[in-house]
Amino acid sequence: MLDYKLLQALAAVVEQGGFERAARALGLSQSAVSQRVKLLEARVGAPVLLRATPPTPTDTGQRLLNHVQQVRMLERDLQREVPMQEGEAQLPRLRLALNADSLATWWAPAVADLCRQQALLLELLVDDQDVGLRRMRAGEVIGCVCAAERPVAGARSVPLGAMRYLAVASDGFIRRHFAEGVSARTLAKAPAIVFGPDDQLQHRFLALAGFAVDFPYHLCPSSEGFVRMIGAGLGWGMVPALQAREALAAGQLRELIPGCHVDVPLHWHYWRNGGQLLELLTRQLLEQAPRWLGPIDG
């Protein structure tokens, strides 16, 4: 029989990013949290954490974390069916991962009604759409929105739709850097703005446009800041059509190559045994996401 106080300590260390912050979250001493994790390792007969900065789960630790996430959701379902003493029931909080551009555009209106109806709280971890699934694999989250189609073991994946990206820049930037048109030569000198090291949207766009060229770039891991940097004329970048629509209509931004775009498929991944609330969230996303996302080709 698993001791859930030990599992809670493991989950807190991974979710909080360290023993000290886990101790504060649990209202325990750092030594007590460390002892609980060591006792858990003794009982399962294997390490559950790699003592790095931040600590990361081992394969055994990942399986235990997946179990913790599912138990939390099942406990929430039980609280709705079994009377609880006043003050014991807690509002449900779903820990999810999604890409910054979804958070900046369609996510909030898609889930708002469900959060209000179910008194649901969210804890959102933001990752690039191409790497968000690693949070699921690590057992850190109970669901994620990402570009990967294939689910991890124990999870399901459903398509939500495709997010269209346009290569845009300010009018002044285009006049300065592309007065002679967009070419391999001008692209090699014009700085781009890239969300992060894993962001390959610019390369995919250039490949579709027939260019294979290295280019200078800024790094800006903020969806809103990304657009502001483009608007200020610091570079060109790939922006969701949803986010660029008004600025394009107002003439504040222009497309680098009109008609050339990149469509990124988005999938919702969630644990199979995540409880009723996770199923409700899945149905809500499948119903609402097509209002903002296009069809996935193929």
Automatic annotation (TrEMBL):
Xref: InterPro entries: ArgP (IPR017685), LTTR (IPR050176), LysR_HTH_N (IPR000847), LysR_subst-bd (IPR005119), WH-like_DNA-bd_sf (IPR036388), WH_DNA-bd_sf (IPR036390)
Keywords tagged on the record: DNA-binding, Transcription, Transcription regulation
Domain HTH lysR-type, first and last residues per copy: 2-58
Domain of life per record: Bacteria
Keyword Transcription found: yes
Gene3D superfamilies: 3.40.190.290, Winged helix-like DNA-binding domain superfamily/Winged helix DNA-binding domain
The keyword Transmembrane helix is annotated on this UniProt entry: no
NCBIfam families named in the record: argP, PRK03635.1, PRK13348.1
Entry similarity comment: Belongs to the LysR transcriptional regulatory family.
Official protein name in the record: LysR family transcriptional regulator ArgP
Protein source organism: Halopseudomonas formosensis
